[in-house]
């Protein structure tokens, strides 16, 4: 509804920079935080007109352009810092910097920024969601619930109720689980959330076969692509390489968007299909190399997996260098860090590898990588000569995989390695 009024303002004054920038933000927010081509065009138009605006408006236009069009989070972070230093009572730079720092994994800095954003604008739903997510990222469940419960705007938020469902599941609270499940079932888009969370937990626990049957029975349309791509990642992380390649290629038939291509690139490499991974790497560069996250994380991550598949661990670490500022953030979610741990292990640097794996395990929302990282940690501890620590890590791993499907190669290997330590 807001975008329509900004359109009317542009019709009255085609050189109204803030109308373009504001319409872009309205469209961006209405599209679940994804920059559409129309929003990018509006931010670009506003940026071309930035000489005609006030200082505060120039901060707005420049920061949004750097973040959404140039997709340069570090430059955008600097823009927001200058903006809030100049206008310390303006809530917008705090709100936007809060989300950006969380995406960058700068949890300590984000905590201060998000708290300031919440003080300045306590009823802004975007801020409440970012602050709650920040606490959730660090497994501060009580703080997450406190933020949600104190914000009137939270009552109708699908994502905040999904967080409460996840916490109820993690804390094994049946009453809270039933309450949140009832709310989600009664609201559009909510009914699928428990299933999605449950699927991710099943995949992390090595219970893959049931979801595979469900996805195969659903056909090969675009609606099954996310589940198939998740299956391919789960397959490769437990060593089921043939299934991983099959699922990745079937998912690509349904969609070749940036997420599908980037996921297929690393999955195929990890599964040993070097030729297929190289083709995906070229497609990712050609089709999406101009996009910020693809350029900064997805492409170097895919290339690093390709180097690792070619048995070049030192090249793997070199290829991962651009991802370091982002790997602990909410988008990269420690995936490059896990691969760095594998490469360090291959180079016989067990203590550095163990440090990387511990960070992956500590990250609360990456279901799929936690158990493979525990296996990496156990192997690193064994390589370092710490048999007692390795035995404890194997025990934790086998507890997480206690109800896994039979015959999964990596799980079988982990059980055999643990048995040798008894």
Written description of the protein model:
Helices cover 74% and strands 0% of the residues. The protein is an all-alpha fold. α6 (91-103) runs antiparallel to α7 (107-120), α12 runs parallel beside α22 (367-383) and α18 (292-309) packs antiparallel against α19. It is globular. The termini are far apart.
Can you tag this structure with a few keywords?
mainly alpha, 24 helices
SSE blueprint and pairings:
Blueprint (H helix, E strand, L loop, with lengths): L1 H11 L4 H14 L6 H12 L6 H15 L3 H14 L4 H13 L3 H14 L4 H13 L3 H9 L8 H13 L3 H12 L6 H13 L4 H10 L6 H13 L3 H14 L3 H13 L3 H15 L3 H18 L3 H7 L15 H12 L3 H13 L4 H17 L3 H14 L8 H12 L2
Give a short synopsis of this structure.
With 422 residues, this protein is mainly alpha-helical. It is built from 24 helices and no strands. Helix 23 packs antiparallel against helix 24 (409-420).
Strand content: under 5%
Radius of gyration: 23 Å
Count of beta strands = 0
* Dominant shape: globular
Query: What is the averaged pLDDT score?
Result: 91
Low-confidence region ranges:
none
Helical amount: over 70%
SS-based class: mainly alpha
Helix-strand pattern, N to C?
HHHHHHHHHHHHHHHHHHHHHHHH
Determine the N-to-C terminus distance. Answer: 65 Å
Instruction: Please summarize the sheet with the most strands.
Output: none
